[in-house]
């Protein structure tokens, strides 16, 4: 018998208010799971970004950020929540926020393994594959 889908909530938050919860997700996904060096994960941009935080009833389960110039980054979903709509919901919220802010182009650096996910939203690859934190990436763009 299949387990019913657990529910989650997503909202736009500030780094100042929710940094500890955002750090839980990004530490688990990027630093521990993907072995991104901690000094590469944390930067000065978090303070000025719009952040999205997804939580179930008890804990944070996903996050992403939007830089002021329209670059989406640091999108992460806890392993047990992948393929359950969390990433899609996070990206929908970010794209809606970009439209509300009058932005017309979304860019991101996608891990090669996530290209298909972003292509479902209409993102297109621009440029060649590159390595960031020892992980293959491509730049992707979406005209809003």
Instruction: Provide the residue-averaged pLDDT.
Output: 94
CATH topology of the domain at 9-102: Aminopeptidase
The secondary-structure element order is EHHEEEHEHEEE
**Name of the CATH first level of the domain at 9-102:** Alpha Beta
Gyration radius, to the nearest Å?
15 Å
Low-confidence stretches: none
Q: Estimate the global geometry from the Cα principal axes.
A: globular
Number of helices: 4
- Pairing-aware structural class of the strands and helices? alpha+beta
CATH-defined architecture of the domain at 9-102: 3-Layer(aba) Sandwich
Give a short account of the largest sheet.
8 strands, mixed
Termini distance? 41 Å
Beta-strand level of the residues, as a percent range? 25-35%
Q: Roughly how much helix do the residues carry, as a percent range?
A: 25-40%
CATH homology group of the domain at 9-102: Gcn5-related N-acetyltransferase (GNAT)
What's the number of extended β-strand segments?
8
What does this molecule look like?
- By secondary structure, the protein is α+β, with helices and mostly antiparallel strands.
- It has a domain at 9-102: 3-Layer(aba) Sandwich (Aminopeptidase), CATH 3.40.630.30.
- It has four helices and eight strands.
- The radius of gyration is 15 Å and the shape is globular.
- It starts with 8 loop residues before the first strand and ends with a strand.
- The model has no long low-confidence stretch (mean pLDDT 94).
């Amino acid at each position: 018998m299949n387990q019913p889908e657990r529910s989650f909530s997503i909202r736009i938050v500030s780094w100042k208010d929710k940094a500890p919860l955002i750090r839980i997700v990004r530490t688990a996904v990027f630093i521990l799971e993907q072995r991104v060096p901690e000094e590469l994960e944390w930067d000065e941009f978090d303070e000025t970004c719009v952040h999205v935080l997804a939580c179930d009833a008890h804990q944070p389960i996903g996050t992403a950020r939007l830089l002021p110039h329209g670059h989406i980054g640091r999108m992460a979903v806890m392993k047990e929540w992948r393929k359950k709509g969390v990433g899609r919901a996070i990206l929908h919220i970010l794209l809606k926020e970009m439209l509300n802010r009058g932005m017309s182009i979304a860019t991101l650096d996608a891990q090669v393994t996530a290209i298909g996910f972003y292509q479902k939203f209409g993102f297109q690859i621009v440029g060649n594959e590159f390595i960031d934190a020892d992980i293959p990436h491509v730049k992707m763009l979406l005209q809003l």
